[in-house]
Amino acid sequence: MEKSVQRRKGFTLIEVLIVVAILAILISLAIPKFKQYRENAQKQACLADLRTALSSCVAYLAENTSANVTDCSSGPDGVITSTKNVGSITFSNDSAGNISATATCTPLGVTCTVSSNGTASCS
């Protein structure tokens, strides 16, 4: 006599619940990190736009020797005064002669500043 052996097809309820629980734990760990990575990327995009705007202001001032740093804020030809990532950019200079660009980053609502001496910060 031969006994027929039946093979199981599919997964049991316990196996499916364990997989769902593991996935839920992994997702709960990944979401905060993803949010942090996204915020950092948005800050870096804002700083990159400010560096570009600062470069355009410095180039404008080099070409127009009678111009003042505050002239850059009014948006003369070739000077970037706002982008998708930053609102209205304000240009200023300090007593050491460094030019800086300051703006509020649109996606995050933080204020970032980039200076011609190479410093950059967001607060």
As residue ranges, the low-confidence spans are none
**What's the end-to-end separation, in Å?**
81 Å
Strand order of the largest sheet: 1-2-3-4
The coarse silhouette is rod-shaped
Continuous helix count: 2
The average pLDDT is 90
SSE string: HHEEEE
Q: Could you tell me the strand content as a percent range?
A: 5-15%
What is the alpha-carbon Rg in Å?
27 Å
Q: Helix share of residues?
A: 40-55%
| Strand tally | 4
Characterize the largest beta sheet: strand count, sense, and whether it forms a barrel: 4 strands, antiparallel
The class by helix and strand makeup works out as alpha+beta
Number of domains: 1
Describe the protein.
With 123 residues, the chain is an alpha+beta fold. The protein has one domain. It is built from two helices and four strands, in the order ααββββ. It has a four-stranded antiparallel beta sheet. The longest helix is centred in the N-terminal third of the chain and has 51 residues, at 13-63.
